[in-house]
Amino acid sequence: MTTQRSRTLRQTATEAEKLLWHGLRDRRLGGLKFRRQQTIERYVVDFLCFDKRLIIEVDGGQHNAQADGPRTAFLEAQGYRVLRFWNPEVLTNPSGVLETILAAAEGRLER
Fold first, then answer.
1. Which of 19, 42, 46, 103 is the most exposed place for a label (fewest CB within 10 A)?
2. DSSP character at residue 28
3. What pLDDT was estimated at residue 17?
4. Global pTM?
5. What CATH number has the domain bearing residue 37?
6. Buried b vs exposed e over 55-94: b needs ≥16 C-beta within 10 Å?
7. In this structure, is residue 24 part of a structural domain?
């Protein structure tokens, strides 16, 4: 079921997800390999760099700390670092978001 869901999510990506994927795909960001809409156990994450154990989530208005807390805690317990960005942040400052992601992947970010 999650595999089918991840396929559907790839086909119905938000504008912010499409814009960020353009900067992450094909090892465009620091040579890092990212996958989109990747299944991790019962969750589907927006973007995953498995080598760096880094998850990138692009959130819309339906997201909040209370609702996403258990999901984030589970993913962190699996050894992943989770970075979250709001859709407007990605749409208005994509280069800044990409720099933040690269800094996290390189261990230069305490976020």
1. 42
2. T
3. 96
4. 0.87
5. 3.40.960.10
6. bbbbbeeeeeeeebeebbeebeeeebbbbbbbbebbbeeb
7. yes
Q: Is residue 110 in some structural domain? A: no
User: CA-CA distance, 96 to 77, in Å (whole number)?
Assistant: 28
CA 98, CA 77: separation in Å to the nearest integer?
25
Residue 15: which domain range?
A: 2-105
Q: Is 103 exposed, middle or buried (0-12, 13-18, 19+ CB in 10 A)?
A: middle
Residue 111 lies in a domain: no
What digits encode the pLDDT tens for the residues 42-87?
A: 999 999 999 999 999 998 866 566 778 899 999 999 999 999 999 9
Asked whether the beta carbons of 87 and 13 are under 8 A apart, the reply is no
Tally the domains of the chain.
1
Find the helix or strand (DSSP H, E) in which 88 lies: helix 87-92
The total number of residues written for the chain in this structure: 111
Q: What is the pLDDT of residues 7-44, one digit of tens each?
A: 665 566 899 999 999 999 999 999 999 999 999 999 99
In a domain, 43, yes or no: yes
